[in-house]
Specification:
The chain is an alpha/beta fold and 365 residues long. It is 50% helix and 9% strand. It folds into two domains: 10-259, Aldolase class I (TIM Barrel), CATH 3.20.20.70; 295-362, Chorismate Mutase Domain, subunit A (Up-down Bundle). It has an eight-stranded parallel barrel, surrounded by five helices. It binds phosphoenolpyruvate (PEP) and manganese (II) ion.
Amino acid sequence: MAEKLDLIPASEWGFFTQPQPPVIAGPCAAESECQVMETARELAAIGIHAMRAGIWKPRTHPGSFEGVGEQGLQWLLKARREFGLRVGTEVARKEHVEACLRYGIDWVWIGARTAANPFMVQEIADALRGTDLPVLVKNPVNPDIELWIGALERLNRAGIRKLGAVLRGFSTIHQTTYRNDPGWQIAIELRARFPELPFFADPSHMGGDRKFILGLSQRAMDLGLDGLMIESHHCPAKALSDARQQLTPAELQEMLAHQLNVRASDSQESDYRANIDMLRARIDIIDENLLSLLKARMEISETIGHFKKEHNIIILQLPRWEALMDNLIRIGNTDGLDERFVQALFNVIHQESIRIQNEVLSAKE
Ligand code: PEP
Ligand code: MN
């Protein structure tokens, strides 16, 4: 598994200067010349430099608005000419890439449905080979980090170095508050594995409703993601797709300027440093203690395994496990620990105990 991408930082792509954080905004879809131009005018006026608009729309059901196609590229170029915006659109096939290159579109993104398909990603990567177009790759619809990384690798191997990721959330079988499960854990893992990879959040597609955009953007910023891709339409109520999750440029401006709190990633200020270093040292000690306690616990599990083997007893004694979990949750509750946390933690510990006992039982004498 390759763990290295050859990247050019987003600050050198030439279109993220102001405002901070880097924000890409624009309608879900280009619908008419008038809508693109009016939205572009308002976005440029609030200081946005990069505009998005889908012109080939991957819709769930046939018969929905599927985008205006190539003519939309003309409108995007006009928006660039008149308002200096760097314009981008979604590509899902090599014909889309070829059209974007012919027209001179500034950047492209790969959507969540396409990112899930290695054949399609490879086709796009091959069509982009030899260019230095910036490409953003949304997470695949299914929560598979390797598939996402694989898509990034395919583009990088084709020579795309202005490469970034966009977290737009994951499909789930359950009904959740959000349209898509944000999957913050996967974002944290991607960030840890590729700290240099420009990383955006798309709170519009995560939340599915404009009322969630601020909260999700704040969470993305607090986790140290670099920027945001937000759907914005001059008149969201009239949008032909994703109407509920788009902000007007004025609402976007209000959020960016007055509501979103972009915290510093670190500080050298002495009071902060002294306290944070001391607190982290305490956490480190507790973590090390936790590890040695876990080691002691697993050793006892192994001894129990031998004992069960000797007496020919099965590994999983459900009543014992249920009683143990009930007890732990009760204690956790008294100590103010979240029940789901306690349950998840001890499920992992229990699984490891079972794995160890299984090894003991299956070992040849
Ligand atoms: C979009 O950005 O409009 C879009 C279709 O996004 P996603 O691929 O994240 O669903
Ligand atoms: Mn959309």
